[in-house]
Amino acid sequence: MIPFTRLDEFWRKPAVYWPLLLALAAATPLTFAPYYHFWMMPLLFGAFIRLLELRPERQIRSAYLFGLVAYVCQFYWIHTALHDVSGLPNLYAVPLTFLLPAYLALFPMLSVWLWQKTRLSRPLKTGLALPVYWTLAEFARERLLTGFGWGALGYSQIADHSPLAGFAPLGGIHLVTLATAFAGAWLVLLIDNPKQTRQRLAALCALTALFAAGALLRQTDFTRPDGTRASVALPQGNIPQTLKWEASQAEATLRRYFDLVAQSRADIVILPETAITVMLQNLPTEVLDAFARQAETNGSALAVGIARYTDSGEQYENAVINLSGYRSAQGFNMPYYAKDHLVPFGEYKPLPFITEPLYQMMNMPLSDFKRGGADQAPLIMANQRVAFNICYEDGFGDELIAPAKRASLLANASNLAWYGNSNAMYQHLQQSQARSLELGRYMVRATNTGATAIVDPKGRIREAAPANTTTVLNGTVEGYTGETPYMKLGGSWPLITALIALAAGLFSFGRRQTKQ
What is the pTM assigned to this prediction? Predict the structure, then answer.
């Protein structure tokens, strides 16, 4: 058996250390959808921690490089949206593809900087402080500058057989991130701690308890069926983004979705985000009436994704309208949900005096929406109270709690044609799985090109449509009632507040120990 000291010397060599660090970061996409190799993340994170320990003088730059490479590999589809779909020249598209990962990598770097400044024994520093700092950094990047939480450690565990997913209904995705970080850190203390038998035994017991608790939580039902069932049809139009907003394509798009609605025989039918590519108020009410009557003939309640002007007519919203029982005499007065959490650069223009020239080079219509407002009422469809969210919004579990409390069913309407046949659609689906776990309800996903799916309250994919095909996904859902502990807590802030207090205590305790 090779002594650990000799192995450590080998890993420290720059010719080994840096390629290994890059390889660990590049492998992180395999832990997320569509691959779902959840078991890899604690191993990758643990190996990353051990590398940091071996080269303390390189910890900050190592953390930044790890984050940069990991996020570029996970979010390579930014280039697809900018260049392949929007038509931005590579001269701009390539550096802009690196811009978001370069920003996101600041957060793991910050957590490692705090870890480096903490003066504690190894079990406390590596086994407790680093997972806490990392989780706080993940939370911060989900919130700052409208937030981008994709790629958080916790999402890697939202998979059918992952025990750590059981923590989602207890404390949300950030508790799952904390549990995943603990798993990686405790593996380091278990495996690479040859002279500390007690510490290794403690790490083994902690890991066993962590996975056992997660498995037990995974089997616990925090919400319950309310006795209602509904059949659901989710038409997937498969309209290429390069054609979607062409005026000459509008009639063909309307015809395609009308035909898909006509084929659907379900209690609830939901069309994707901006399925109809004409502004609501510019669409003849006879067209809306035709959709509504066809759905009614089929015995269906119908919801349609469409952009609408605000009542003032000066701004526009990304909306889902409820056409159940609609008649043209109503005009444009129908219940609707309008997207509230907008995508920077995609749905509103931050720093327009800087970014406006880029928009002029891209084919990106409707890039300055108005927010719809928080906690909008569910839409009544058949026997369900449906809480809608649109595209990017289901990446923010805290924002869905209030509407979910009043709803029996969750629904996401999305158009991910921006990202071609990339992993973006599946990473987005995984976030819907996390929201179903957190909120204890079915989530139905109506998308233009994929991933159209039905997810149950345990985060499992019950039905899924093949991507990039014109089809209708059919399935059955149950209405659910009740609240998970995460919902009762009101979101992530109780956990985050406790972690901030713990982090401050660990940091200050270490400073006092150093002075003594």
Answer: 0.93
